[in-house]
Amino acid sequence: MPELPEVETIVRDLQSSILGSKLLKVVVQVPAMKITKGEDFLSYQGLKVETVTRAGKYIVIFLEKEKVIVLHLRMTGRLQILPLKTKPIAFERARLYFDKFDLAFGDIRKFGKLVFSDLKNYLKDSGIDKLGPEPLSSDFSLEKFSLKLSRTKRCLKAVILDQSVVCGIGNIYADEACFSSGVLPYREADTLENEEIEKIYNSIKLELEKGIRNRGTSFSDFEDAYGKRGENQKFLKVYGRGGEACLQCQTSLVKMKVAGRGTVCCKNCQK
DNA sequence: ATCAGCCCCTGCTAGC
DNA sequence: TGCTAGCAGGGGCTGA
């Protein structure tokens, strides 16, 4: 499941390869893909890529003439840079044909999203307008985060998974950040001490930065834009380790459901 | 207004 | 061995 570090890895791959490339043709397996706008792919053809950026878990490709393509990989989406005329990848849902290579969008579960829009409308069309601050930017302040937590009875994990509070965090990094901060994910947010909130705030940043350094977590099937697996799964302390020994205290890690998500934590190390 | 819980979708696995 | 129920979860939607 691609979260911020995985999406950032793909975006960096794209930045080093597709800037300046010309989009020749778009083929989408309708209705397999959820597409908004852009029945009119013709108007995107022949345009060069100007910039590629990330917003939360969204990939945003800016083209000439104020055209914008937004992708969200959701659970099982993947984006692959391929040599020209490569045969379809597994569960391919769309392909963008560029002048020097193909860009394939594959997605087993069809949860992924592809939005064809323009500079004026892409934020709203894609849902990026609803995102909270980027966790690794200065927009994500301890003060605002603290205020959000203190004003809700929701559990900690539900709040940090809420993309409108802080964007880009998914199940893996939520569990890792909770463990790393020593706070139980099911704690009611308004019972957290200032000291705990600061630890959580710092842990979120540290875990995401670590994920990016390791080029993402390939727990099941994440691959970068070149089909290479990440390394961060080797450094996970709790995610996917339910029933195994805690790396800090050897207590058996507990697996439970929190905020509707499978969750692993250490009842000894986390309070 | 807030928030829990259902739904989408399909591959994999545990259990019979 | 073969079948099936249940699980995985990001985010949109619904109803309390």
**Overall mean pLDDT score?**
92
Beta-strand proportion: 15-25%
Number of helices: 6
β-strand number:
11
Structural class comes to alpha+beta
Q: Tell me the strand order in the biggest sheet.
A: 2-9-5-4-3
Can you summarize the main beta sheet?
A: 5 strands, mixed
Radius of gyration: 20 Å
Order of helices and strands: HEEEEEEEEEHHHHHEE
> In which range does the helix fraction lie?
10-25%
What distinguishing features does this structure have?
4-stranded antiparallel β-sheet; alpha+beta; 6 helices; 271 residues; DNA-binding; 5-stranded mixed β-sheet
Short account of what is shown:
Helix content is 23%, strand content 24%. It is built from six helices and eleven strands.
Itemize the secondary structure elements and their pairings:
Layout (H helix, E strand, L loop, with lengths): L3 H12 L7 E6 L5 E4 L11 E7 L2 E6 L3 E6 L4 E6 L9 E7 L3 E6 L5 E6 L3 H5 L15 H9 L5 H6 L9 H11 L12 H20 L40 E5 L2 E5 L6
Parallel strand pairs: 2-9
Antiparallel strand pairs: 1-7, 3-4, 4-5, 5-9, 6-8, 7-8, 10-11
Helix pairs in contact: 1-6, 3-6, 5-6
The structure holds a DNA duplex (16 and 16 nucleotides).
Structure overview:
The protein has 271 residues and is of the alpha+beta class. It has six helices and eleven strands. A five-stranded mixed beta sheet has the order 2-9-5-4-3. Strand 10 (254-258) and strand 11 form a beta hairpin. Helix 3 (142-150) packs across helix 6 (194-213). The longest helix is centred in the C-terminal third of the chain and has 20 residues, at 194-213. The two termini are 27 Å apart. The structure holds a DNA duplex (16 and 16 nucleotides).
